[in-house]
Amino acid sequence: MRLLFIGDVVGRAGRAVLTARLPKLRAAWNLDFVAVNGENAAGGFGVTEAICDEFVSAGADCVTLGNHSFDQREALVFIGRQPRLIRPVNYPRGTPGKGANLFEAANGARVLVVNILGRVFMDALDDPFAAIERELEACPLGVGCDAAIVDFHAEASSEKQAFGHFVDGRVSLVVGTHTHVPTADCRILGAGTAYITDAGMTGDYDSVIGMEKDEPVRRFTTKLPASRFEPASGPATLCGVAVELDGQGLAVKAAPVRIGGKLAEARPEFWEGVGAAPSYLG
Ligand SMILES: [Fe+2]
Ligand SMILES: [Fe+2]
To answer: Counting ligands in written order, which one lies closest to the CA of residue 180?
Structure first.
């Protein structure tokens, strides 16, 4: 079974590379399931219904969020009718939408996706470790689902790594999001969970974490805001992680994905490199 997770899509440039590339990647890599973090998709802040629909049409089975979940107020309403959109599970009780959902992959497998916010250098929220315990108790890998993806949206690498080890062997993939910079630690943990501290953003890297660089530099140097943050509009890099699972829903292969824009390219050799099975063989 083949999974692709794509990190925080930032603004128009991020959306453009996603919608241009994802349909082709989905076919070429014979993907069974695709999840995309969309928390920065609408002008850098939140997601609209039209954008969410656009991501689903481009090949996303699930769209996850983060600390910017409800920056676009309409998300508070349409999340109730869009089961493919999930927000962090550890928001307060009564928050609109779901923090976890079960989806059917192209191969018929049941895929649990959970979106969770970290707490270190972030707003105070319910314990993310207790939250995943509850979700996995309700829907254990191999019993309630055939694959499980956790988008752990957090600032601190330490919290992300601790979380990865905490659920190692109990989920298919822990993918970090939120820092908007891909880390070089994509690997399979000891008990079979694929892990990366941050998938990186899908946006223009000639920026400060996706935003036009002038205003962030001005604020760091003068502390005086002069204008709004606007997403950088140059060619964007699609960033994510590619994972192949065994029949138990644990990872056998994992690799970073970086396509287009300013970053060095990275592709999963096991799906398209020398010696790899042709993608049409599945
Ligand atoms: Fe983000
Ligand atoms: Fe974030």
So the answer is: 1
